[in-house]
Amino acid sequence: MPISAKYVCLFLVAFFIAAIFGCGDSVRSGGAVKFEDGAPLTEGVIYFSDAQHEFSGRIKNDGSFSIGGIKEGDGIPPGQYQVHVTFPSILDPKEWPVDKKFTAPETSGLNADVQSGGKNQFDFTVNK
């Protein structure tokens, strides 16, 4: 029985979507950002980045965050990530609540090893 063009097109669309977005593992990851005295960082966006990807999550009022790929909390691929935080561009850098070094992956000193099947809860400490 011949395969209709409709099914061939559906297969090709599904194949290309999978190729673009990947079919690999996606691991839920999150945690909290706090200051040395234990007070939470109550604003900003946290980024996990590697050589090919950058994933982000909003930091909530209690300092907690969850990292997502397409949407917040949907998970990211396992791997080694550099971590940094950013703040709205309307804020003057002098008003940022953390030391400027925490706003770039190269200088933050923050890292995360996201593992398949692991807990993947990361608590980071920043200073002013």
Question: How does this model look, in words?
Answer:
The protein is an alpha+beta fold and 128 residues long. The chain has a single domain, classed as Sandwich (Immunoglobulin-like), CATH 2.60.40. It is 13% helix and 31% strand. The chain contains 1 helix and 7 strands; from the N terminus they run H-E-E-E-E-E-E-E. It has one helix spanning 5-21, and strands at residues 29-35, 45-49, 54-58, 64-67, 79-86, 110-114, 121-126. Strands 3-2-5-6 form a 4-stranded antiparallel β-sheet, with no helix packed on it. The longest helix is centred in the N-terminal third of the chain and has 17 residues, at 5-21. The chain is globular and about 40 Å long. The N and C termini lie far apart (70 Å). Mean pLDDT is 81; it is low at 6-23.
Order the strands across the largest sheet as they lie in space. 3-2-5-6
CATH-defined superfamily? Carboxypeptidase-like, regulatory domain
Report mean pLDDT, rounded to a whole number. Answer: 81
CATH topology: Immunoglobulin-like
Please give the alpha-carbon distance between the first and last residues. 70 Å
Give the SSE order as H and E letters: HEEEEEEE
Kindly provide the name of the CATH class.
Answer: Mainly Beta
Number of continuous helical runs: 1
Residues in β-strands, percent = 25-35%
Q: Structural class, from helix and strand content?
A: alpha+beta
Rg is 19 Å
Helix share, percent: 10-25%
Q: What's the main sheet like?
A: 4 strands, antiparallel
Please give the CATH architecture. Sandwich
Q: How many strand elements? A: 7
How many domains in all?
Answer: 1
Oligomer: single chain
